[in-house]
Amino acid sequence: MGCDGGTIPRRDELVRVKKKPEAKDKDSELIFQWRYCAITQQLLQQPIVMCGHGKLYNKISLIESLLNREMMPPIAHHIKSLKDIKDLNLTPNPIYKDDDKNHGESDNRTAPYICPVIGLEMSGKFRFVALWSCGCVFSERALKEIDTKICHKCQKPFTEEDVVVLNGNEDDLKIMNQRMELRQQKHKKKREKNKVKVDLSAAASTSNDPDPKCTSTTVTIKVEPDVKPTTKNPAPLTNNKRPGSLKESTHDVKKMKSSYSVAKDPKVTDVYKSIFTSHESEKQQNRAHWVTYNPFYN
Fold first, then answer.
1. pTM, whole model, 2 decimals?
2. Under DSSP, is residue 185 helix (H, G, I), strand (E, B) or coil?
3. How do residues 11-59 score in pLDDT, each as one tens digit?
4. Which residue among 91, 108, 132, 287 is least crowded, i.e. fewest CB within 10 A of its CB?
5. Distance in angstroms (rounded) separating the CA atoms of residues 206 and 212
6. CA angle at residue 164 from 90 to 169, to 5 degrees?
7. In 3D, which of 174, 75, 93, 85 has the Cα closest to residue 130?
């Protein structure tokens, strides 16, 4: 009946043992999470967006899934509209080679994006975060080492609720749900405040109207025809002068004329007249001019 010839059967040969589940390849799993869309499993291409849970999607694929909800997988059922996603501001890796440049083969040794602060590759080996306020992406190590509430890339302020862990674990997913609810509550409060402001402004505008039932007002403008003067050369208005204007008979107006002469002005003193060359003492002098020469000296 067998077992002859000195063979010793093992236990797994006589008893059926439950097979162990196949172990997942961690490298391939990380590549799938960080390089492929969570909805269509296609390669991530710009524009890339994230949801409140930190999953990565192609924006075009996500819009198509929103238009046809039957295509939406269970992992993205919490996305109701474009307000539930955020465009990512990623920093490209200069060492990464594209598929076209690498003869159709993807470069799995390097990541397509890096941290703009400390240069870590966004490959899944290091934890990365994104800010919901501006969409910038950098490593969690940079966020902890540089403890500030201003974005390291675009210098915009953010709060702790805006920090979203990309492709986090189950504990991170619970925290992301709480932060997502807090952001939604803040958004609702802002909406209510804006509604109150609009209502107050509308009430103020209606209170100023004499008849609140009147929704429109008509304004009539009477246009008179142009009246042409009967005479060709109307008389100038001499009596309607502006206050403070100079009359032609005043002494100041005479000074403005080209025929005015200081030597002939009776109101000017003789000492002041002697400054000018038109004075008799300057005409009869026998010395040279103080600048060049005296044009009146012969």
1. 0.55
2. helix
3. 777 777 677 777 666 777 788 888 999 888 889 998 999 998 889 999 9
4. 287
5. 6
6. 110
7. 85
